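Practice problem. Given the sequence and the SMILES for guanosine-5'-triphosphate, write out the predicted structure.
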Amino acid sequence: MPANLPPDYYAAESDFRAATTPGAKRAALERMLAIMPHHKGTDHLRAELRSRMAKLGQEISRQHAGGHADAYVVHREGAGQAVLVGAPNAGKSSLMHALTQAHARVGDYPFTTQLPQPAMMPFEDIQVQLVDLPPVSPGATPAWLRGLVHEADLLLLVIDLDTDPTADLQLVLGELAGLHVAACPPASDATPAQSYATPAQTGEALDPKRALVVGTRLDLPAADDGAGLLRLELADGLPLLRTSAATGRGLHDLRERIVAALDVVRVYAKPPGRPADMTRPFVLPRGATVEHLADAVHHEVRERLQYAVRWPANAAPIRVAHHYELCDGDVIELHTA
Ligand SMILES: Nc1nc2c(ncn2[C@@H]2O[C@H](COP(=O)(O)OP(=O)(O)OP(=O)(O)O)[C@@H](O)[C@H]2O)c(=O)[nH]1
Ligand SMILES: [Mg+2]
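Answer key:
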């Protein structure tokens, strides 16, 4: 979350969240963009807001045209959204099924998946939304993938380790560049800011998106060599997670890395005089403060917030400032006037 955003910005952001129509959402985004200061720290956020505005614009025009575009819209749910991007037959639907237990259509022929298929991946006390997508391939990548890829919090680049993984990686990165997206290592991987784009497209302005490379078919004999080649290709950039949907190997690690890459914190709100509900955390972007938590509880709680108390597990409660940066697992009591 970029620093130094003025309070008006958060008010507009709160209007955006409360808005129920694409028109109202777009109006709030316009205000957020107008208020936001221009500096390096806000570049990503500006790009993100612009891409959301573009998407809302498309949605509005579709509504006006009375089109049936709903099948291509995935309503965001849970702690974050990760989309599966990969070549035909890479193993996306199988991976999705293994991670969520949802019944994705799996076929041993390419282009089995035609529409975006969301399902929730449970992890400890939160759920992450995964979206299975149709394959990308030169000339056959559906144009509507662009909105979904730009909207996502995280990309899972699904690569078959068993057959020519480096060629598949280049194909996927090339198609992403065609959608104006460059895959970047997530902040949680503590690698230098680095993005991947094929040389042919580097002249274009690409939106950076956090991504993990997920190798599939680790159970097959050629997969170890494939993973080795892929690791060389990736050098110290995008992280590679090796998995098998057939045996379940690597899936636990992948779940953890997906959640880490979302860069969120779980915070439990405690009403004064009552215990906190430890089963339903508020999930907020890392860097969120007590004020953001209050806003997530209710915008009135933020407006009427007097002070907050943090309840550590094994120590006395302690008062924290409105701008206290929340840590994963914090229990916070909000006192309002
Ligand atoms: N041995 C093995 N086979 C797998 C694994 N994952 C997927 N497969 C097989 O690979 C084939 C394709 O899997 P899908 O999950 O449908 O692939 P997809 O990427 O969703 O394919 P499209 O939707 O057509 O792009 C199926 O026959 C799967 O059974 C794996 O981990 N190990
Ligand atoms: Mg599929």
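Check your answer against the key. Confidence is low (pLDDT under 50) at residues 197-201.
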